[in-house]
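Project outcomes to date are best conveyed with an example. Our students and postdoctoral researchers have been running inverse folding experiments weekly, and each run begins with a structure described purely in tokens. The record below, which covers 252 residues, was selected by the lab manager from last quarter's runs and is presented without edits.
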């Protein structure tokens, strides 16, 4: 279990970012945030079902209830953004990775905006991400697995202050609208042109090598088995696990 738990130093960093443990309400005292967060990390890392949570973390229903509360009130996202606010914005790399959707995540109530799409490999969700010059996560977005990367690029970039940054991306992001958006916001795009482009633009190939950082991040976040495959019916729950895993990565 220890492999998924926060160290004392990591706990000190995250403790002031979590809600107060004392609510002022009568009744049985709540489990401390450290135990609850470690239980969530155990689920995220192991990929196990909630019912398999070790007893050391308390009843699985209590840990799940705290996870659901922090998911719905934005606590996990708030902690992530607080830890990433000192990001190195000189170089920003953008890309996406496919997440296999497990059959347990298919049922339940369906909505039009559910981030699941059918590809040659079956049902998938795409996790779009931006990482900074150190390879640390800055922003996330979910889409259906059969969506083209460039379709959601501007939507993702809109959540990041681009001025003065170099935006690194592969050829899939070379659409004119994306390049114009980056330039309009005071940033420099480092995106190689497609081979069939009539008027190819120059690309800084030396700087482009730094784009591997986003691929390295995807490798790191897929160490968490709840991210390597999607087992949940709600996009909000999957994104909450993404924030949870990103918090753990930022604390390393």
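After processing, the design step wrote out the following sequence:
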């Amino acid at each position: 279990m220890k492999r998924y738990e926060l160290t004392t130093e990591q706990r000190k960093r995250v403790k002031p970012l979590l809600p107060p443990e004392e609510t002022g309400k009568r009744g049985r005292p709540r489990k401390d945030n450290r135990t609850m967060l470690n239980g969530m990390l155990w689920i995220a890392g192991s990929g196990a079902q909630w019912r398999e949570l070790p007893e050391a973390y308390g009843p699985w229903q209590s840990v799940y209830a705290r996870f659901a509360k922090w998911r719905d009130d934005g606590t996990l996202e708030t902690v992530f953004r607080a830890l990433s606010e000192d990001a190195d914005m000189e170089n920003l790399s953008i890309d996406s990775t496919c997440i296999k959707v497990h059959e347990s995540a298919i049922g339940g109530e369906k909505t039009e905006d559910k981030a699941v799409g059918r590809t040659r490999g079956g049902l998938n969700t795409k996790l779009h991400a931006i990482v900074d010059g150190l390879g640390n996560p800055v922003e996330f977005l979910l889409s259906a697995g059969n969506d083209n990367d460039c379709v959601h690029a501007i939507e993702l970039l809109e959540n990041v202050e681009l001025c003065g940054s170099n935006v690194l991306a592969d050829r899939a992001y070379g659409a004119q609208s994306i390049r114009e958006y980056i330039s309009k916001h005071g940033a420099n795009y480092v995106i190689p042109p497609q081979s069939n482009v009539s008027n190819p633009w120059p690309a800084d190939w030396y700087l482009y090598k730094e784009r591997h950082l986003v691929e390295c991040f995807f490798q790191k976040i897929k160490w968490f088995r709840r991210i390597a495959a999607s087992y949940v019916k709600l996009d909000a729950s999957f994104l909450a696990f993404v924030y949870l895993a990103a918090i753990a990565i930022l604390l390393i």
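The longest helix spans residues 235-251. The two ends are 17 Å apart (CA to CA). The training component of this project remains on track.
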